[in-house]
């Protein structure tokens, strides 16, 4: 018998190749070779997900010559699709074009099932799309009196035969409309199927009549103590289609975590009340974000949350009492896969929720998300990742091991508890330089690119005015004041005589520094008080001590690189952070910012279910360090109260800047910054 004629089919960019008989659809060849070529309609020429681009001519690299007739002729299905929806020149539908000769076929990124999601910066890792819920188009057998079986059973049979999806489960919700939908679609339907997790079988989330043209969505949510930030993602493309945030309404029960734990201890029903308000705020946020994106929020089928342990417990409805005292036991440290409705989230009725695992009693799912995003466990060099927020999550590690802790920095870095502080919003001072000779400041405010001493500045800020100082502004300002000799190492602001500027003025028992006086035009007087300096000293000392403690535990004196994460971390100037002694001494070019890494981690877990398994594994290997019970933490904290530090050397910093050797404590009745800082209660997030 004559052997069948076969042709060489080479797919790019994967390089996968194989021989196929004449007439094999390209989609079939791709499937058999394990090439990542998408399809929702199962090769029926409806979804256009299978688009490919054949290449013709001589390919010496592959050793083939592709003739113009290497694929079957353009067919009626393709023509219909092109006339209705349009198709890029040179593209074919992989389910329609069949192999007729040796051919080289490119699979464009948007036709790949596991396509890479574009991220805005050079990230530590790529996001490969592999969502929990996907769409499948199926044709279902019609009912037959002679072979009685339910509509659901025939739908499941079709999904098994056409998509190899076995053991499907369907909720009552789906059954309630299934029969009508099947008939409306004339036995052709599109199903959203959740692939299942752990012991849970795959399940039907939604059924649409015919081929469903729309998409399904997911939310990646960073539930912080101060703000709740959500990204709405298209689960088919992986794109973020809207982002929004709201203040965490629990703030009214306490600014920091400990005060919320105390509130729940002191007030019967307090924890339940905090659970209720945060869930309400989330529902309002989700409605708003869906409206902004112009989608029905009931198309949101999956959600991922990252949060610190106290937020975690309050969100899932567990009293955080145990987190307020040693040994800080979590109700569960494992990841949670739940129905979103169990958390009273008003989304798709069967929407799922995944909450990342917590690392320890004080190191939450937000730190796990940072670990997922920044992947210190894959780093060749030793990296310190600091997620700066009301509570700093700190990770130190490399391929060998990763350590983690959290440190209670308080809200000073977010502009709170600072006399002229404010959140980062138009009108807030965000960049500052202080002239070391005149001691005068120049600054930039959010909303304008001009420095305050540049022409046109007044006009540029006409609308917003100058309203206060945001977190990154206060860091730069205090560091610049130290560099200009207005503040000494222990954190005391000098008198006009000591500093040579009348901008320093007696303000009670200590001196303050005048940054901007807008009173003549009805604006505020923006000053830095000695109390502000102390707030910053405490916050930065907490952050540094956490990092230093991890370095002790790792047995190192220096780190190779530092990643500043957090919405605020992205705006911190590395030089100024180092002048303050907020982060360890490091080459400036090795200090980078990662934006909202916890939010990115949530997005990775939303878009790729394998990443959920990965972080569950990685978290088990992270060594947790509890700062509250480490005596060295207190020691580091006291040393780090100085600017930059009373003990630790900063040789790299010293090679870049010269810190004036000033000391304003003349033994009078004014408090010294260090003493003041030492006497004060250590801010606690416990
Ligand atoms: Fe749907 Fe080709 S697989 S159009």
Helix/strand class: alpha/beta
* Largest sheet report: 6 strands, mixed
* Helix percentage: 25-40%
How would you sum up the global shape?
elongated
- Uncertain regions: pLDDT < 50 for 5+ in a row? 120-124, 669-686
Read across the widest sheet, the strand sequence of neighbours is 16-15-14-17-19-18
- The CATH superfamily of the domain at 221-355 is known as Domain of unknown function (DUF4445)
Mean of residue pLDDT values: 90
CATH class of the domain at 221-355: Alpha Beta
Small-molecule components bound: FE2/S2 (inorganic) cluster
CATH topology call of the domain at 221-355? Nucleotidyltransferase, domain 5
Radius of gyration: 30 Å
Distance between the termini: 80 Å
- How many β-strand stretches? 31
Count of separate DSSP helical elements: 18
In the CATH hierarchy, the architecture of the domain at 221-355 is 2-Layer Sandwich
Strand content: 15-25%
Descriptive terms for the model:
Ubiquitin-like (UB roll), 686 residues, elongated, 31 strands, Nucleotidyltransferase, domain 5, alpha/beta, binds FE2/S2 (inorganic) cluster
List the helices and strands and how they pair.
Layout: E1 6-12, E2 17-21, H1 26-33, E3 51-55, E4 57-59, E5 64-66, H2 76-85, E6 92-93, E7 103-106, E8 116-117, E9 127-128, E10 133-139, H3 151-163, E11 169-170, H4 172-184, E12 188-194, E13 203-209, E14 217-223, E15 227-234, E16 240-247, H5 257-266, H6 270-293, E17 300-307, H7 309-316, E18 336-339, E19 352-355, H8 365-374, E20 383-387, E21 392-397, E22 402-407, E23 428-434, E24 441-445, H9 457-460, E25 468-469, H10 471-483, H11 496-499, E26 504-507, E27 510-517, E28 525-528, H12 530-554, E29 561-565, H13 574-580, E30 591-595, H14 597-607, H15 609-621, E31 623-624, H16 631-640, H17 651-656, H18 673-679
Parallel strand pairs: 1-7, 11-13, 14-17, 17-19, 20-29, 22-31, 23-25, 29-30
Antiparallel strand pairs: 1-2, 3-6, 3-7, 4-5, 8-9, 10-12, 12-13, 14-15, 15-16, 18-19, 20-21, 21-22, 23-24, 26-27, 27-28
This protein binds FE2/S2 (inorganic) cluster.
FE2/S2 (inorganic) cluster (FES) is lined by residues 27, 39, 41, 43-50, 93-95.
